[in-house]
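Hello forum,

I keep getting stuck at the same step: I have a sequence, I want structure tokens, and every attempt I make locally crashes halfway through. Rather than fight my setup again tonight, could one of you with a working pipeline run this one for me? It's a single chain of 250 residues.
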Amino acid sequence: MATFEELVAEGVAVPVEGWDFSWFAGRATEQRPSWGYARLMGERMARADRAVDLQTGGGEVLAGVPKPPPVLVATEGWRPNAVLARQRLAAVGGVVVEVGEAADLPFVDGAFDLVVSRHPVTVRWDEIARVLAPGGTYLSQQVGPGSVRELAEFLTGPRPVGRARDPERARATATALGLDVRDLRSEALRMEFFDVVAVIVFLRKVVWTVPGFTVDGYRDRLLALHRRIERDGLFVAHSRRYLFEARKRG
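Reply #2:
Ran it on my machine without issues. Output:
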């Protein structure tokens, strides 16, 4: 059986570029939202003429659309992910533009009739409303408030749940900017971690769970977590997700 230090070294060595989570097979599980975001996005892409995927990661989800629109653009702010996205999206005619998550979008007003985004780190509602054409659709699956809170609080102690990711706050902001909300659904989804390696890789990859996470900074709490998983066989947390779909007035 591997020692704690060996498991830590393994967790640090795993590449974390892109949004491909297949590495976690057998080491962690996460229940999927009932609405099926990839399917919904594919349906809307098939009806679109000009679409953009904001914060595409490595382009994993976008590359799987069955029928891409004539004009397909993706944005990504992290260079290693942008490189992966260019490789993946070339097959579907997608163009990748490097732009920071909180930056203004480098597109003209009304440039797209479909804007999509899965798990955006930052949501620039003003820019989404600006680049959407009248009658255009915004579809997004987002991280809800308190997501994976059990894991975060095990490492950092109790912390308040902020309102930045509140779906009702998103509704109010979008409505004020001229978007009519058509669908808004939230779910809590069970997650299971079977070893501390999976925890380390997850925290390195999903950086907003514990901002500023480093193995050295949290070594004592990771050791405590490792011992708990050895005792119980797993660590259980819950991710929060919400589906958001809106149409621009006009």
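The chain has one domain: 4-248. If your local run keeps crashing, start a new thread with the error log.
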